Amino acid sequence: GFLHGGLMLSYATLRKRFLKLLRLSCPRRNDTLVVVTLNNSQSYLLLKLVLDVERFFGAKVVNLHIGSRRMPEMEELSRFCSSRIQVARQPSTVTELKLIVYEAYRSMPEALYVLPLAAEEIYCYVLGEVVLGNVAGLVLERNARVAYPLATTSLTEIEKLAPVSGQEAVLLNPLCRRLIGELKERVEPHALSWLYIRAFVQQCTTRV
Known about the structure:
Blueprint: H1 8-24, E1 32-37, H2 41-53, E2 60-66, H3 72-78, E3 83-87, H4 94-107, E4 112-114, H5 119-130, H6 139-143, E5 145-147, H7 155-161, H8 174-183, H9 189-200
Parallel strand pairs: 1-2, 1-4, 2-3, 4-5
Helix pairs in contact: 2-3, 5-8, 5-9
């Protein structure tokens, strides 16, 4: 079982936070939610949460898995999706991940793309890629409907709630991990990732 007695409250709190961020990107009635996964805890939790809340939107859930194969937990969970797509590539940066998703967007332009990035990953993406001039990945936000519902959740919180075996995908490079350690006292990853969403992710002006 995924939920244990002591984790129920944490999961419920996370689910509420997750729904709030997902709704910012305006899921529509009978929408297609393309859940992007890698072989890591945050992707597993993302897919788990989307499948948990899909009934609120009457949505079709598509799992776009990026990597050589799905780890066992992801394989099992992805069977509950309407359809599954696999791209056998290994992105090493968030920009690379977003460009792979953008390729998928071109064949499914109406879908809402749900990405598995936690607070620290968005923080690193902004400071280690966007600020340094690597803005190629922003083509995704410019064109597609995108959601980052784990953007205000830390990797530590995620790993406690969704421990998985065979975790392979790591987008945080060593330099970035050091940067997080150095700046944590001055810049909160959650705050910067929230700022990123407000600045770059298309949001609805009216409630659906």
